[in-house]
Amino acid sequence: MIQAFFRGSTGACRAPVPPHEVMSQRFFLWQILFACLTVLHLCGAVWLQAFELEKPECIAPAKPGGGHDIMCQLLAASVADSLLLDMSIRFMPGGIGALAFNYAVSVRPKDANMVVAVSRGTVLNLALHKFGKYTEADVRWLGAVGTDYGVIAVRDDAPWQSLDELIATLREKADSIVLGAAGSIGSQDWMKMALVLDMAGINPKAIRYISFEGGGEASQALLKNHIQVFPGDFTEVVNHMEEGKLRILAIFSETRLPGKYSTIPTAKELGYDIVWPVWRGFYLPPKISNVEYHWWVNTLYRLESSGVLGREREKLHLFPLMILGEEFDRYVKNNVLQLREFGQKFGLVQ
Fold this sequence. Notes:
By secondary structure, the protein is of the alpha/beta class. The protein is built from 12 helices and 10 strands. The strands form 3 sheets. Strands 2-1-3-9-4-10 form a 6-stranded mixed β-sheet, with helices on both faces. Strands 5-8 form a two-stranded antiparallel ribbon. Strands 6-7 form a two-stranded parallel ribbon.
């Protein structure tokens, strides 16, 4: 089974984020830990008050409507609810995250009032050296606070009622359909579709593919029929699906999603043994102080333990995940190594 990247020389695979069933167990343990840690963090409140937010801003490194926008909405709503502060959202498309990364490192390296939304797709770009001279060591990794899943979506009036029908059309003539998603060839959206095509015996490089600055722009292109297939993420298309405008042919989760989304088939059950979870979170500029960094870590702890993050996460169709501070820093850097190995499968490492 392919689960987002290869690990080890044996070819065994594991997902960087467990499926939502396993995550719910881990998340329950986190909730217990948060209850204990909250007391300890509150005891350190005097120390933490050395930093106070002033005009906080969340950078979404894409155009509106995609996963980064959703994460900034999540944080802004949580900060407004808990800290009674207005957090602005700034959209900064460019280089599929590279422009925002450069902005944090070079323009505002000491500004702790700024956070940047990030996902595993950003880390994949770092792994493939798409950010030029910058690496995963150039920012401070704050935390992952939610999980998304990859999907394959089409318009509701599209001729394909199933993934098999879409694959049959592509197998007959690979360039007869226009696909589009966030990022160029090698991005995580391109890669999950490439894995499906590879398993179907279709050369991924034979398809017609258009790159967009984020899933929001790509989903709008699908709605306008500028593209016919969007291998995006669940959070980017679920509202359009509920409005009857889009149809999800497959979701890259281990098992079907719970509740009203249980009718969506997994790629795995359709014969494509691929699981593609997408963690979503935030990073901070590189030269903020340790006091400022731990203030943010502590704040996310408190937002989670109070239930604020969980409530906002549910509104935005994200699934539970919480990896913060130094643990998240190690997690990201390990992800980079694993994803770089994965990128070699398609000759994408620059």
